[in-house]
Design a protein that fits this description.
Number of domains: 2
InterPro entries: GlpE_sulfurtransferase, Rhodanese-like_dom, Rhodanese-like_dom_sf
Radius of gyration: 24 Å
Strand order of the largest sheet: 1-5-4-2-3
Protein name: Putative adenylyltransferase/sulfurtransferase MoeZ
Oligomer: single chain
Keywords: Nucleotidyltransferase, Transferase
Order of helices and strands: HHHHEHEHEHEHEHEE
Organism: Lignipirellula cremea
Helix content: 40-55%
CATH superfamily of the largest domain: Rhodanese-like domain
Largest sheet: 5 strands, parallel
CATH class of the largest domain: Alpha Beta
Pfam family, one: Rhodanese
Length: about 200
């Protein structure tokens, strides 16, 4: 019996099997690495928005849908903070285009600062930024729609182009558009920038 064979014989079975752990670990790491490194994931995006805008109240798409269905509750002003090009493709019913603070304040007009406001964009970054600015102007009942229009559309909730119901949304750009289901893309996205 060779020295190698006798050593193998005296090693417990579990230890002999452990010699393959580096191989399995390497294989798992390689498979996990198949994901595109820059491909965005919803959990990461939502965490990034919450971290960047800690003072902004986040409202889920489910909560907004329930709020809109509640006829007893005063309805929020919906502010779409995307570009006119994005808004023209589709938006939430009754939403007002307000891509910046000036247009948001103009849309709110004489509304009291206690007015409930829900801002949204593609994924929640631009709308959280506007929600933060509105809060700084005294509108303390302002929310960001977490996941914004992309999550709303992915859940097959209603989208509108003026008063006509539509099924697609502007994907913003190639990088951020991965968060919108492919069949919901309305057109070719522009080059990647921030959402």
């Amino acid at each position: 019996m060779s020295q190698n064979a006798s050593a193998k014989h005296f090693l417990p079975l579990w230890l002999r099997r452990c010699r393959f752990l580096p191989l399995w670990g390497g294989l798992l790491a390689m498979l996990g690495g198949c994901r595109e490194p820059d491909r965005l994931q919803w959990d990461e995006v939502k965490q990034m928005v919450r971290t960047r805008f800690p003072g902004v109240q986040q409202l889920s798409t489910e909560q907004l849908a329930a709020w809109q269905a509640d006829e007893e509750r005063p309805q929020p002003v919906l502010l779409d903070t995307r570009t006119p090009e994005e808004y023209a493709v589709s938006h939430l019913q009754g939403a007002v285009l307000a891509p910046d603070l000036e247009s948001a304040l103009q849309a709110l007009g004489e509304a009291p600062v206690s007015t409930p406001i829900v801002a949204y964009c593609s994924v929640g970054y631009r709308s959280s930024q506007l929600a933060e600015e509105l809060q700084q102007h005294g509108y303390g009942n302002t929310f960001n729609l977490e996941g914004s229009l992309f999550q709303w559309a992915n859940e097959h909730r209603p989208l509108y182009q003026n008063e006509r119901r539509v099924e697609q949304a502007h994907p913003y750009d190639a990088r951020w558009g991965v968060l919108l289901e492919a069949e919901l893309h309305a057109d070719t996205p522009k080059q990647a920038t921030s959402p």
